[in-house]
Amino acid sequence: MNPLYKLLGVTVLALLINLPFGYLRQNCEKFTFAWYFYVHISIPIIIYLRVKAGFSWHFIPITLGSAFVGQFLGGTINKRMKRSG
Q1: What is the mean pLDDT of residues 60-79?
Q2: Which of 11, 23, 26, 66 could form a disulfide with 74 if both were Cys (CB 3.0 to 4.6 A apart)?
Q3: 17/85 Cα distance (integer angstroms)
């Protein structure tokens, strides 16, 4: 399989995994245990996916950025759901 497709798959999975955690994080007070839990729980999963796909540590910024986008989008969805009713 093409390494570019693998990288795309890992980054999309990192984003999708973090969507619900970002959604749940939005309901927590900042810097509490729950907040840290929702921010960091996906990291071992993403590391596993990255290693299984055969990518070195050089690709951490890409997967970390994708996880951040997932957290951000999940929080944004939560805020919009609260505003709309």
Answers
A1: 97
A2: 23
A3: 25
